[in-house]
Amino acid sequence: MIKNIKTFEEIYERAVKRKGEENLLSLIDASIKTPAQLKAINADRYLSTMTKAIFKAGFVWKIIEYKWPGFEEAFWNFNVNRCAWMSPDDLDSLYGDDRIIKNAMKINTVSVNATMILELDEEKGSFVELIADWPSDDYIGLLDLLHKRGSRLGKLTSQYFLRAIGKDGFVLSRDVIAALLNARVLDKTPTSKADFCSVQEAFNDWSDESGRGLSEISRVLGMSIGAS
Predict the structure, then answer these.
(1) Residue (of 142, 141, 150) closest to 38 by Cα position
(2) For tag attachment on the chain, is the N or C end more exposed, with fewer CB atoms within 10 Å?
(3) Rounded to the nearest 5°, which phi and psi values hold at 134?
(4) Per-residue pLDDT for the chain (228 aa), expressed as one digit of tens each?
């Protein structure tokens, strides 16, 4: 356990004071899936969800949501094998496709990340099962894997992708980072491996204390401070 950090009970009480307990409970209710439920999701949905997270990064989310049916059409419903084997002609066509956001660097990630899925299928038996079974107490290890093996899957983008697919995990939003600073887990915005290890350790401690998952704890942190 990290010394001198605030307990989860203290953080929860602060969130209750700000939001009211009934309202807080409704706000932190997370749509987290079990490993079995995650394994039942086809790999094309994982590729679709990570691609949406990549395109949302630094862009207006509502526009991406509005155009998403066009993305599904343009990228062959994110069929992993088809996306992995895009030809130069496919890419040239996509660069000018009005159904999607014409950002060449982000378009290129679809093929790279589809290839990552196939490679991890080969190496680990199943990319989907790898995600589903990854232990919560080493969530930063999963973020690191996606960052190293994927394209434009930075730690925050990966956090949003995993939450959207239903994997239990934290999202280090501005408010959550502010709450971690307030709880004395960090003394600055996390950038180093040591910082992320401290975050993981704190979440593990709070999970042991409260019996809650990483996603619920993350939401409580965000509600305990800032403008949430």
Answers:
(1) 142
(2) N
(3) -65, 130
(4) 566 899 999 999 999 999 888 888 777 766 799 999 999 999 999 999 999 999 999 999 999 999 999 999 999 999 999 999 999 999 999 999 999 999 999 999 999 999 999 999 999 999 999 999 999 999 999 999 999 999 999 999 999 999 999 999 999 999 999 999 999 999 999 999 999 999 999 999 999 999 999 999 999 999 998 654
C-alpha to C-alpha distance for 138 and 106, rounded to whole angstroms? 28
CATH of the domain at 143: 1.10.340.30
How many domains would you assign to the chain? 2
Rg (CA), the chain: 19
DSSP 126: -
- Short-list 44, 160, 41, 42, CA closest to 110: 44
Query: Of 165, 188, 209, which one is at a domain's C-terminal end?
Result: 165
